[in-house]
Amino acid sequence: MKVIILGAGGRGRNYTRYCKQYGVDIVAVADPNTKKLQKLGKDFEISEDKLYSDWKDILEKEKFADAVINATPDKVHYPSTMAALEKGYHVLLEKPMSDKEQECIDMIEKAEEENKILMVCHVLRYAPFFEKLKEIVDSQRIGEIVNMEMTENCAYWHFVHSYVRGVFRNETISSPFILAKSCHDLDLIGYITGKKCISVMSEGSLKYYKKENAPEGAPAFCLAGCPHEKTCPYFAPRLYLKQITQVGWPTETISADTSFAARYEALKKGPYGRCVYHCDNDVNDHQSTIFTMEDDTIVSFNMTGFSSENTRTLRIFGTKGDIRGHLELGELEIYDFLTQEKETIKVDYKTIISSHGGGDARLVKAFIDAVTSGSDGSDLKTSARLSLQSHLMAFAAEKSRKEGKRIYLEV
Ligand SMILES: NC(=O)c1ccc[n+]([C@@H]2O[C@H](COP(=O)([O-])OP(=O)(O)OC[C@H]3O[C@@H](n4cnc5c(N)ncnc54)[C@H](O)[C@@H]3O)[C@@H](O)[C@H]2O)c1
Known about the structure:
By secondary structure, this protein is α/β, with parallel strands linked by helices. The chain has 13 helices and 15 strands.
């Protein structure tokens, strides 16, 4: 199988790694950021002639691969995916598909018209933890779901990295948080309950990471002599210079050269060295949303950027029992109302070398298998059409939050 990778950032690198693992031939990679592109080429032994500076340079050529993996920024998804489908490629598209409803629908229709697979990276559907949870719910062991609570605990260091200093900080370059990150959770709500959402009410804001909360005398960059170095949990050098040699995510994203000296330089003037109170961020740092599903099943979803843990937690309340789950611990606790017995299931996912609870690598494998087997993609656990509901839920949540009213969805 021949694959083209669009975007050589964090996700593009991940997908390149899995493709290589599964023996896929990477025939082209595009990224306007020369340093990232060259680094990806070097790290994964992809020759210079396969590296392009823009997705357009690849997709204007005659078709020369089976599929495109689209890991470009949110705003680039629509034009590049439409062009790839038009050229006859199957597409694995990063979420969110788009921040515009019509663009999501256009891409779905284009894929259907061209008879191509358009799979969306809702990787958590492929995480063993959620697979097990779905199996338990579908077995009716806890009866019918009456309500459910889910929390996206985004760790404070993750939140400031991605949503205050980083590439998802501002809606004009990315999307609202509930779409950019939580569309995974909204997708899982539909997947686990097996129901459609009929209405949404949401509250939330950017409460904390703004200039009026800056401690006195905090400069624009942490390394410019900030007097609060010892008391600020968000002091950039503490977050990014602690690792001397072994550099993992998110530290590896602040500079293509990950040596200590290069990272130090990157923090002096680069985006990740900025004071968290002096960034151009506008995405919410907390949001609570109630989704009413068909049959009056209620789901409350809470997201916070102020957590020590970086995980998803949930409780599902059924007519015959309840479930408590913790993704990071891989733990599911099931209580049976009749027998009054509790069972704890440990889902072992740490043996899979992949982020998102093992979901990333398994989703890529499912996509590769679907393309190579010539399937129409209908056996995949995620598709653009299935993903549409989570996007509509996110758009409705934003509308509800901004307009202060309940929003009804067409079922
Ligand atoms: N599925 C998930 O769980 C998950 C997690 C993180 C990010 N994402 C999504 O994945 C996508 C990429 O995120 P990321 O974290 O890798 O961001 P990133 O900024 O690290 O990478 C995106 C790359 O695309 C490149 N790019 C910009 N314009 C381009 C163009 N015209 N042609 C080719 N490349 C171009 C950028 O230079 C950048 O290197 C985003 O849509 C994001 O929302 C999904």
